[in-house]
């Protein structure tokens, strides 16, 4: 602590504090975009058991755009239908359900349960695939200095942070190893519970740091350091909200039970209380149970006594509620207890130099399975923006959209959580048997789009160009700026392979011009595409094409803007070489860009590729439309194929023009 | 070589020589079944580029049963349609096609192209997941001794092999590092061409062997040591057949071409010659080109002069054939040249103690994309049989089925290859333009089932109980002993998750009783299931149940025979707990076997799960049927739900009864 004179000093463009789901997501972008970055975490290893487990549809789409959704799908447990058990007329528990979301087919993916530790592993693997960026573990940030005078100079390093390598003793302390982690987990399951690549991380936890302390100067700081965020405190941003009087126990077990729906998502409510049942991977089931209500009347700000809550106590509670069904377990993977609170920071950023993401700025109950999703999507949102600004590709003005986009959603999350928790913790059977179920379904419906991430509600900004008519260009148009590009499975013109747009619109750091080219077999339509291509090829005036005027990411060759064409003519009646050269993206070494032309036509050997993309997008199959899709797959701008001015305006606002000859 | 006195001596149940695709497949079973085994290879690393690349449908189903098909699907390139280019009436090349197999939807998977090196990596990862078995590299077998007198004693070690660790100099010699590997590969692509987990293998190629030589005594030996198999020579098994006069060049490149179908599977034939085009992963395309014909008339047994064939020469050949289209490349990943021959060993085994698999016993032209598939399926076939016999689970009599099953298929392969090569190498344009295409399509159709592995033609044996009526029990029945269990996507009764039977019938070393329970909502049918369950539960007499009488794999708890029930009643009208206890497989620690009851019902959120499994199997939805599926997913026996005698007879023939109290 007093060795400042021995501390080394170094510079980095981006420093990320905290390597949980949100920090890793931000780090993915640094790795992918070639940003000079560091990421530190105080814990000596990543998470292995317990913690978050719910993965919502939009999160899975993001995973697909990164490239590891197939691993989640292989290991995770899908839950689509939900069941609500309530006492029937005779007092015995009866099932209401299964209920299924009406939006269940709006994404190729379905809500999935998988341990947070696996997700962290997958993101780490993706980071490794693209760069040498490594999480530096067992390190804390000790002091913070911010020079406000430098905030408007994009080349300046206004942030100074002192890092310190923890000693082995410090690492063993509960505040580092995690207060919420298991206190008395059943033995015999630890090893079988981990996948082999987890183990390697655990074994290789050695910290090979050269110095005990280090001064880092950074252009940008992203604080992803959890509910007790050190970073947030440095920039004096408070958390607003309060704890409720609800205390919950949560336990991950392999059940031994004759309850019919122990492997199905749902709730059980009766006079004895309520349980939320969440089936998981590897035969695990997670149970959430309200275990105690702090008597606020007699004890104003009582914090509950965690030591009174044990796995045994949670088990007895579950047994009482499930009666007459039996319940027991021999294997407990993880458990904890917590007091529910809803808290949010009034802002998620300081001067667009320091950003906060995930639990550092919003905490809430974990039962709705949204926490990890919101956190990862925070990190995913700020990550590409900081990465593109730090590399000189994007206009620093886009940074303000982080707070605008994510704070609003966090407020919606807390609102959702308040409703959901409320319904949950009315600790009594519903009147008339069905009342509770109905009110739950109402809430679920209300928040369905939001919860699954099918809608993002991102407002107008330098990154979202809203249309005058919010419904879009044509009646029934579903391509809305500020919302994700709705996934569709397409055929590649050149080779006939099928792929979801979530993979095609890969998270590689580039904005994309997506040309829905319509029916290119029609002469008039073909002419429209040719006119657009002339413009894109720069044949309508020097430096007029947006495909070549902007800065390219470091180490990348090719265009700063990726162009993807999706036509609606029959696959067999169209040829890759029918399309204008500029859409086929020639490279001296790699040849033609065979992955650039796609077709919305049915494929007889792939049912998901049904040729109904244009219908799903609400776009006329003849006339098409074009759009700019942001690096995170949200739609930035939509316009007719002739609206090259609108497209250029959007891009000029977001990106920085390359300096000629540089 | 003269250090015999320093050689250590050790025992192993199974020694595998050669860690290519067939050897690794055999090793997978050793790892999965807990067999004491060793696997050696003379090369210091696995393959990284080039070699085989074609993965047929049945191979992909096997990968799914092992658990890595999702990785192949993520990285590989699917080819379904094929195009044949021939000169049209005006002499210019025209496309015939695309042609698509009529069987394209008989499997969840489609023929895929992916480098052999990745496949080896995936199998290695699976081996690592289940055991500590590691490939010992840079090691050769030097001497072999076989004591015929011990062949009938299952506990004896009749095989003695002396191993030697190669010196660095030896490893660098062409005979070890691979004569067919690249001689002058373009630089700059080596690294980008490898995936990160490949690199690790390359870096960790250190050979940490304690001794220079070692004597190993083994119960069984599996020789997977390629076309020049050392093992085959030790047991005096010849190769029968001959080289043809056809010489081919093959080149893996990233094409720069305006040929419309350069990214599509197909052929181009004209007066200048013929090309086979195979699109691959990572923008690669493989081209096979006949480059030279050895004049047999003047030079009886001429071996071609490989040095005369260069990438440049292959390129010029392609350019001439593709005219007027352009062709060039800057990146060449791998290339080679070879003389086509069809050779087969008259037997694949010696005394059912030494087995030979893959190229060691059959070689042929690589163009049909079958070589790696046949080899892996050889290894997959012999692997489980040796593993179960070595662990005392299965009757040694099953070992003879390896030669019976695989030799017949290898003969079919050579027959296929002769036809295919013939059509290919008629080095002239087809008469009438379409004649060639038509004759090709005929061959393709003829061998379609065989090539894709949809049919295996395994004959009657202790492992395949043929029905009197080869058509099956009921008209239209498609469950044929000796053929694979046709894949269907089902819903899990307990949680509603969907899964392909290729995953459900996991390759874990167990035989499976698959009960197609029919409509269990019907009282009569329910009674039939209950009667069967009484029998299975052993309630009809002591030790009468086949579920408990056989030996269990080492380290396994639970049943030697896995029971999977698949009913046809509506998912929502059926409960997991409706089924008899014996079908729900209770375990004291893990609770009920929620993965044991499946339902053939349509799922609204998964199009592949269409509720038409019984129709596909040709099984009556009311009455059902039952079958024994072998560990490799081939059907061993089929019978009515009452035919417990038939089932028991089959199992008694294949498995060894456990010694009570042992």
TrEMBL record, chains A, B:
Residues 458-657 form the Phenol hydroxylase-like C-terminal dimerisation domain. Coiled coil: none annotated. Residues 12-148, 208-416 form the FAD-binding domain. The keyword Oxidoreductase applies. InterPro entries: FAD-bd, FAD/NAD-bd_sf, Phe_hydrox_C_dim_dom, PHOX_C_sf, RIFMO-like, Thioredoxin-like_sf. Gene3D superfamilies: 3.40.30.20, D-Amino Acid Oxidase, subunit A, domain 2, FAD/NAD(P)-binding domain. It comes from the Eukaryota. Belongs to the PheA/TfdB FAD monooxygenase family. This is FAD-binding domain-containing protein.
């Amino acid at each position: 602590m007093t060795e400042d004179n021995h501390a080394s000093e170094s510079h980095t463009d981006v420093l990320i504090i905290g390597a949980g789901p949100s920090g890793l997501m931000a780090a993915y972008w640094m790795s992918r975009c070639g940003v000079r970055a560091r990421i530190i975490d105080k814990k000596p290893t990543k998470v292995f058991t317990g913690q978050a487990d719910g993965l919502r549809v939009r999160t899975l789409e993001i995973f697909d755009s990164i490239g590891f959704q197939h691993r989640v799908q292989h290991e995770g447990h899908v839950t689509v239908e939900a069941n609500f058990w309530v006492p029937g007329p005779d007092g015995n528990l009866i099932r209401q359900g299964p209920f299924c979301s009406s939006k269940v087919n709006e994404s190729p993916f379905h809500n999935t349960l998988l341990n947070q530790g696996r997700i962290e592993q997958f993101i780490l693997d993706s980071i490794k695939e693209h760069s040498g960026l490594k999480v530096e573990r067992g390190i804390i940030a000790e002091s913070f200095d911010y020079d406000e005078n430098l905030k408007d100079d994009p080349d300046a390093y206004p942030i100074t942070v002192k890092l310190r390598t923890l000693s082995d003793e410090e690492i063993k302390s509960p505040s580092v190893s995690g207060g919420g982690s298991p206190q008395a987990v059943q033995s015999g399951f630890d090893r079988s519970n981990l996948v082999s690549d987890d183990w390697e991380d655990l074994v290789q936890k050695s910290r090979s740091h050269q110095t005990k302390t280090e001064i880092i100067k950074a252009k940008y700081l992203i604080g992803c350091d959890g509910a007790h965020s050190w970073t947030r405190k440095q920039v004096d941003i408070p958390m607003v909200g309060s704890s409720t009087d609800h205390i919950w126990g949560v336990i991950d077990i392999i059940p031994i039970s004759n309850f019919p729906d122990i492997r199905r998502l749902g709730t059980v409510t009766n006079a004895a209380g309520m349980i939320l049942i969440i089936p998981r991977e590897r035969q695990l089931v997670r149970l959430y149970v309200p275990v105690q209500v702090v008597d606020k009347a007699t004890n104003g700000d009582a914090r509950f006594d965690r030591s009174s809550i044990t796995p045994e106590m949670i088990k007895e509670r579950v047994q009482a509620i499930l009666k007459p069904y039996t319940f027991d377990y021999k294997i407990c993977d993880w458990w904890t207890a917590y007091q529910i609170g809803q808290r949010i920071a009034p802002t998620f950023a300081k001067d667009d130099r320091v950003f906060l993401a995930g639990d550092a700025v919003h905490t809430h109950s974990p039962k709705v399975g949204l926490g990890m999703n919101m956190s990862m999507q925070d990190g995913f949102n700020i990550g590409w923006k900081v990465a593109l600004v730090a590399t000189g590709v994007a206009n620093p003005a886009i940074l303000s959209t982080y707070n605008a986009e994510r704070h609003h959603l966090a407020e919606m999350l807390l609102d959702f959580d308040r409703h959901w928790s409320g319904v949950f913790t009315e600790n009594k059977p519903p009147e008339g048997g069905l009342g509770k179920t109905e009110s739950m379904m109402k809430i679920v419906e209300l928040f369905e789009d939001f919860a699954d991430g099918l809608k993002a509600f991102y407002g107008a900004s330098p990154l979202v160009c809203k249309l005058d008519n919010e419904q879009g260009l044509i009646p029934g148009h579903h391509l809305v700026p500020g919302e994700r590009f709705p996934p569709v499975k397409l055929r590649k013109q050149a080779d006939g392979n099928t792929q979801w747009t979530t993979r095609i619109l890969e998270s590689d750091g580039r904005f994309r011009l997506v040309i829905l080219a319509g029916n290119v077999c029609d002469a008039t339509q073909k002419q429209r595409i040719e006119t657009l291509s002339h413009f894109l090829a720069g044949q309508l005036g020097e430096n007029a094409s947006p495909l070549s005027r902007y800065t390219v990411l470091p180490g990348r060759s090719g265009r700063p803007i990726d162009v993807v064409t999706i036509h609606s003519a029959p696959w067999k009646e169209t040829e890759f070489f029918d399309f204008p050269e500029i859409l086929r993206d020639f490279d001296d070494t790699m040849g033609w860009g065979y992955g650039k032309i796609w077709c919305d036509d049915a494929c007889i050997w792939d049912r998901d590729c049904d040729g109904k993309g244009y219908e799903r997008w609400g776009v006329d199959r003849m006339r098409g439309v074009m759009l700019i899709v942001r690096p995170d797959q949200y739609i930035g701008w939509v316009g007719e194929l002739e609206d090259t001015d609108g497209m250029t305006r959007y891009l000029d606002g977001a990106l920085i023009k390359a300096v000629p000859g540089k």
